[in-house]
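C-alpha cells as discussed.
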C-alpha cells in the first residue's frame, strides 16, 4: 500500500464533503428564490384580477351615465 494513498483518500473525502455542503447551500438558495418568485407572481396575478374588476366597474358606471 502506498504511503500517499491514505492522505490522498482523506483529502478526497474532505473535498467531497465541502462540495456536497456547497451544493446543498446553493440548492437551498435556489428553492428560496423560486418560492419568492412564485409568491410575487401570485401577488401580481391577484393585483391584475383586482384591476380588471375595477375596470369593469368603471365601464359599467360609464354605461349607466350615458
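Sequence:
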Amino acid at each position: 500500500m502506498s504511503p500517499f494513498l491514505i492522505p490522498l483518500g482523506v483529502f478526497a473525502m474532505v473535498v467531497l464533503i465541502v462540495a456536497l455542503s456547497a451544493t446543498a447551500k446553493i440548492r437551498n438558495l435556489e428553492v428560496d428564490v423560486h418560492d419568492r418568485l412564485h409568491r410575487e407572481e401570485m401577488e401580481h396575478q391577484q393585483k391584475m384580477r383586482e384591476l380588471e374588476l375595477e375596470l369593469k366597474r368603471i365601464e359599467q358606471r360609464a354605461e349607466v351615465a350615458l
